[in-house]
Amino acid sequence: MCASAVDSLVQDVRARTSSRKPRAAAVSIPESYIRFPLAFLSRASVDSLILLKGIGPVLADRMIKARTGKRPFSSWEEILSVRGIGPKKLQSLKAQAGIID
What we know:
By secondary structure, this protein is an all-alpha fold. The chain has helices at residues 3-18, 31-35, 37-43, 46-49, 57-67, 76-79, 87-96.
């Protein structure tokens, strides 16, 4: 490749990457989730639940509906009853709270 072709390619890459939006700052896991994860999952709002990796607004809403009118989640296995939470997602939630099986 000649020098002018390389320069052109470099300018093209710079032009494309300079127009990208900066990434949002990483959101930290709420301290209350780390200390009391089941209590957090039983009482948190949608806005709080979506701070957890892998939980979006739809899944957060399902979690709230699953616990509404019932007692708080008392075990991790109860969380598996929420549609969209399977063994892998449950493991991720536990890991975020520092629980290692």
